[in-house]
Specification:
The structure is a homodimer of 354-residue chains. Chain A is of the alpha+beta class and 354 residues long. Chain A is built from 10 helices and 13 strands. In chain A, α2 runs parallel beside α3 and α4 crosses α5. The longest helix of chain A has 18 residues.
């Protein structure tokens, strides 16, 4: 827990369930025209006037997706929203509403839950979505946050995972592997702290990397740029489990193969240097690290020239015939088949072997 | 856990996350015309052609909402869906899609999770809704199920909690208190079992009461009957926390008072006798028990004659002026103010005093 001992601590019992809900939702203003009814009835009401409603849901569990020893609660709330919005953008849709359900134990104070909601509201405001409902309940143990996001799109704009064709360029936004390396730093600092509680961590030079883990952003900007420039991806997915896992999803669902090139995969200088320091292969971090929440998408060959260098989007390979498989060509010219070894919450819990 | 030692047990690790999702979702058939895209992409897509989309979400946590010592996993899955659909019906809307997120620990086998999903699919089929998405993740401790349900309604059909007017009749479907008494039986049998594992429980005569707790139904039939007979409730809510709590929600949001009459509140014979046996006041069980998932609604005075005796709907009082407060007139003619003491998940976890 992040709260110093001398900060105010209100027991949840002092408010009751409805008091807590009122406290957490009394600042909500609905901004979306489609939000007809928000929190406060059996259900929320949205009206998208014949457009498609896009729905996604993601659950974050304490000890699996986050460790409260190094995750500020506000960042946690922010991230819980962003990872859902990222899925909506990956459909080439615009997120419009979210619902948030939280299970909490009595080791959390009202102030702690307010901090989570503060992050939730910051994310809602930044991305222009309305919080329209949710559920607040108890947990006998850990904290669990479940978010469902709704978005809207015209039928002709929707982009699925199954539309990639041989010859299409494979593109990725931003850079990969940083979120995973951020997690490695935080885990290292946690161990140091547990062994030497008097040592202050020096994370001055790791702000970018740590930020990528604790406070990821959804690539609304990329979706907008593509739309502005008349580029409709042929397939798209967001990178939550890692590049390997996601390209395999696209290839499986599209019935195609893919050729990726190691020297094209974008890795930040910070991430590259840190991987070396941790004795990790930078490309492995990019392929399997996950949680970068960048967009992986394919575009027709003729659309590649429309991509601007200023967008921070990189072409990392080409869609191939299914028979050619899904491969990575290394800097040394070797060709390896790509297999899914992405971040897996079942591995994290020890249910699967890593 | 319900699984006898000699039944098949597949470790989740043997399947992996995507294998597990495939196993759990490969039998899904989308039946709703509005379900454009279901499981298998970043998000689901629904298209309601200009009608209102109604959204609700509810989370069930192990140890708070259910005890696996006496909750069959199939019933748990069924109930997780039903409690959400109940909220959609309480808006006078028709449920159309659900998403399901589950956090599980490795003490659950693949077969156990399949049992939960079996119940989910039975409920989806019975109520004609499509499962269109979800998330499967790990938990370091208990089982948590989070469901979001979507429904559809014309604007003019929607019923909120805030439309009750003085003079309206207060109606309730079915009977109240049984679900709470079912929980008391199950808790009693659990204690007996823990102390005397060789004693077989005799629940022959308690099937109705226990069923009300373990496998509640949403009152789709009542919504359909009201519509068929041209009755639009002025306000409506489903009874999840207890009659007291729900009538207070309606009165607070509508800015009115209410007069309820003890002798009108429907209590089944089984529940009545059992309450006496447990040394509980039957009306208290009905007022504060919760989890009956019946519908509490108000109708204009002139619509009361349209209600049929065959519908199993009872008029239990009248909406009054706000200044008259919210009261219960007992069989003895005493008038008591009603306060919210409904089932509260925060009480259950020891966060609030009961």
């Amino acid at each position: 827990m992040q709260t110093p001992a001398n900060e105010k601590r209100t027991e949840i019992g002092a408010l009751g369930e409805f008091g807590l809900i009122r406290l957490l939702t009394n600042s909500i203003k609905l901004n979306q025209e489609s939000s007809i009814k928000g929190v406060g009835d059996d259900a929320a009401v949205v009206n998208h006037q014949g457009k498609n409603t896009v729905i996604t849901t993601d659950m974050l569990a304490e000890g699996i997706h986050f460790d409260l020893m190094y995750t500020p609660l506000k960042h946690l709330g922010y991230k819980a929203i962003v990872v859902n919005l990222s899925d909506i953008y990956a459909m080439n849709a615009t997120p419009t509403q979210v619902t948030v359900s939280i299970a909490i134990s009595n080791r959390f104070s009202v102030e702690a839950i307010e901090e989570i909601y503060e992050g939730i509201y910051v994310a809602c405001k930044k991305y222009g979505v309305d919080l329209v409902g949710g559920d607040t309940t108890s947990s006998l143990s850990g904290l669990v946050i479940s978010v469902t996001a709704l978005g809207v799109a015209n039928s002709e704009d929707l982009v699925y995972r199954n539309g990639a064709k041989p010859g299409d360029a494979i593109c990725v936004s931003g850079d990969l592997g940083s979120a995973y390396l951020g997690l490695q730093i935080l885990e290292r600092e946690k161990q140091i702290y547990l062994e030497h509680p008097d040592v202050q961590p020096d994370l001055e030079n790791e702000q970018y990397i740590i930020g990528r883990q604790l406070k990821p952003e959804a690539r609304k900007d990329v979706i907008e740029l593509l739309k502005e420039h008349g580029i409709k991806p042929t397939s798209m997915i967001d990178i939550s489990d890692g590049l390997s896992s996601e390209i395999l999803h696209i290839c499986t669902q599209s019935g195609v193969g893919a050729k990726l090139y190691e020297d094209q995969v974008p890795i930040s200088e910070e991430a590259y240097n840190l991987a070396i320091k941790f004795n990790l292969d930078p490309i492995t971090c990019a392929l399997n690290g996950g949680e970068d929440y960048e967009l992986l998408f394919t575009v027709k060959a003729e659309d590649v020239t429309k991509l601007s260098n200023e967008w921070n989007v990189t072409v990392i390979g080409r869609i191939a015939e299914k028979s050619e498989g899904v491969t990575l060509t290394t800097k040394g010219g070797n060709v390896f088949p790509i297999s899914a070894q992405g971040w897996d919450p079942l591995i994290k819990a020890g249910i699967l072997d890593a």
